[in-house]
Protein 1
Amino acid sequence: MKKFNHVIVRRPCKAMVEGITSGLYPGKPDYELALKEHDDYIEALKKCDVDVTVLEADERYPDSCFVEDPALITRACAIITNPGAESRNGEKDEIIGAVRKFFDDDHIEYIKAPGTLEGGDVMMCGDHFYVGRSARTNEEGIRQLTEILAKYGMTCSEVKLEEVLHLKTGVNYLEDNNMLVSGEFVDKEDFASYNKVVIPEEEAYAANCIWVNDTVIVPEGYPAVLKAVQDLGYKTLTVDTSEYRKLDGGLSCLSLRF
């Protein structure tokens, strides 16, 4: 099934080595290795039958390679978010030009202060969107998002986060009613109706896989997750994200897919 035609990515900047990190995965990113991993990521996406728009690195924003956070793209509209991390808030203004190549102004919506929202907290399951209330996404941001989605015939529900940075840090939808879950999401009632694949704790990072047109891209180095995804019947590709992991970033964070 082909669902996505386009992907937007942004090249990592040299300043990424000073990006925000919880320290959960220690070490400072190696910039040259991060560039190579980004090249491999783009190649993997191209194998999934999408065109890839590559935006230039932006040295003003160390975390700007995590292009998923300043925008959310749906089947009917694009939503420019209002990132809750102060050092990242300006990224929303820099993504608008790329989004305008695909959506006219009548179909670009905006989350406005005091609402905050980051795309990493939003998981699309068909026309329903789960949104994590986190340190980066607040109640007002979720209210605005719900209102915007309703305009286009889509729905939204809040998921309270207790441990993770972003919703998709620990739960990701692979289409076909399949969902990868780890940690606090294993027993959440919100996801009771899905076929949940529980990720072992030692591979929790790899809950962040991405489905792109019937292929699932899996972080390299997580054999249990790779086997679990293959057992569901998906084609798989692996990409090393070691340098992005040090900034709490994963596969979904690095692209907008639509």
Protein 2
Amino acid sequence: MKIIETAIPGPVIIEPRVFGDARGFFMETWNAAQFADQGLDLDFVQDNHSRSQKGVLRGLHFQKPGAQGKLVRVARGAVFDVAVDLRRSSEHFGQWIGVELSQQNKRMLWVPEGFAHGFLTLEDDTDFLYKCTALYAPENEYTLAWDDPAVGIDWPETAGEPIVSDKDAKGLALGKVPAFP
């Protein structure tokens, strides 16, 4: 696999080795030893799968306490995936990175603890998969506003306004969310 650094230290793009032939393709999406060799010694405790129509925006979520690291990928469709640095000690606090993840490019993104995470679906029937390093704890979940001008995420255009849940529509501004050390 190939590890690609992002503009913010912590999140990395992962390009797995893909073996294809007339039958289709094969790729490893998780191999503890290979990831550890790349400096990603991770223990996952929960896997999640969501399906969304085009234009659905989920996030920007994080937990505190009980922060989750997330290894995310798309099995079908495409998303614009975003991580926002919420580490106050980071020179990149409040900054974001975004990457397209799709069934075509087969890329994965590692989003470490200390980041808010979200995505916008770019195609109908997008299947989004992610492995988490901590269990989901709704009582510890926060939502950073997806459209906070202080963060200034440049979301791709979709037809109309993004479709968001009631919870995500009530996301907090960067100055109001609890940050990480």
Protein 3
Amino acid sequence: MQQLINKVLDFLKWPIAFLMVLLLLPAFKTDVLILQEGLNRLVLAWFFLPMLVVIVAWFMVSGFYGSFLSIFEHEATHMLFAVLTFHSPKNIEINQGVGGSFSFKGRGNWLIALAPYFFPTFAVLVMMGSFFYDWLKEPLPNQYWAVFGVMTGYHIASTLLEIHPKQTDFKVAGYLFSLLFLPGANLISYGILFSFACYGPKGIGYFLHTLLQQTLIFIRIFI
């Protein structure tokens, strides 16, 4: 199964790269539209203010970047996508202030290498918590959105600092592919987070529907 998934990902690698390039402008416009639509929602204060505070603090307070938490989340995301693509984890190391490493059985793939740079693991875990509230048939409290904002801001700040030319993960996936894939992937990722903050769980479907509409509008310009 591992070899089959790796072959499929190899086959889809460049089509996915060019798809991300195609979706770049539609995804950006979709993000802007969703933010505009949600400006009057009270939840945005609970979501965006904590998010902005974390981003500012991350760049102004020494010690945040390179902390145990940021390194752990980075390596844990590698591990998550390794497991999802049937690679058995071998070892994970975290050296605070220095960095970390994760090893697994198998040759790996570009998805494992690039996952931490577009997939907000902690924020997704918080999103999954909404299903617990739904099961209890209770509304999501303001404190939930504050935690979600903190996790989103954390991912934005940490990712901005982690993206640089010396990243070995980019070498593994390929520098050109990383350049083509990551901008669009991040716009889609953050668009889903923002749409979830504005509309709750149904916002994920709303984002994808709006993205499809904007993509069709974009394609018609060239037809």
Protein 4
Amino acid sequence: MFAKITTGSLAAGLINYMDNVKEKDARILIAKGLCAVSHEAICASFEIQASRNHSISEKMLHISLAFSENDGHRTKSDEFMTAFALDYLKRMGWDKTQLIIIRHDDHDYDHIHMALNVIGDDGKPLDLKFYKTRSQRTCFKMTKEYGLYFAKDKKNVNRSALKGKDKLKYEIADTAMPLLGKCKSLAEFREALAKKGITTTIVPTRDGNGLGIVYTISDKKFSIGGAKCDKSLKFSALEKVMDVSTDEDVQMFRDGQYVRPEEGKLTERLSDGQDFEPDYGDDFTSGITEISYEYFVREREKNMENNTYFNPSDAFDMSLRNSRQEDSSVASDIAAAAVELATGGTQIAPSSGGGGGNDDEWWERERQRSKQEEVQSQPRRKGRH
């Protein structure tokens, strides 16, 4: 079972998509705390409760739960799907708010869609801290407890059903894994991937005692850590099947050219009166010349609370600071993937799953359309004569 979660500010586009009887063969399984006699009534119900709190703008939560075809003998039951969905919401702490659960029957696999009001019944926002990580753990635990099907390996994944980041992840895995038995060295492995449009970056782990690898599809601005892509593609796994000692980047790290500073000590880079340029989104002004490790940690914890997470060790990584990326967004993607390697996966990309197309794209279209309609509907002010 997989979950995909997105947030948005509009109820209308989401409800029109979810409750599309003609194209999705949709049917409502349960509606809680709202009037479901029409799309207009559903949206009005959401808007009334959302108006109780103006502290946040993204007030709609969309969750799609998708199940394996191997569980069809259980997931065909609406009662099972409803009970499972409510259990999921309770474990996530999202059961005390308005919600509607709708089932779609437009795919071979069973799946449901849930729309939740981010503003709870008590007028306070739901707890969305690290919700992607929490959702992934909840899905894994529930799949195990309910005795649902676990995919054994990537061969069983339906590639044609993949969208967005999941599709790119498997594109990298499908390109890199066949090379494992052919390439005798890491340098040869990286060169072969580069010819196929996939660049690689060697990065240090958080404790400085090991190395990781980040895979990047440059033209699609997508990066992912090796362990997250596939266990066989992480650096420690590559080290077991090929010679990594001849790789220039590996030699640089292991020869001591890169030294991670100890906590409480200033970095050599920033103690020479040199200005720091925040290439990777770090929140520092150009006038700061000396920054302690504790300061980085405090800023990291503060930004994690605001969901603007960065890894302080990136500022210490000379390989990333000195490398020139043609596209700064690609460099940021690599740095973000390095963060996941260093922290063991603090930031987790949305899980695959759900049905009915690319949720992010249609939601963005609806958001832009709504903004245009709002501008057009506003009365024009008369000028002074």
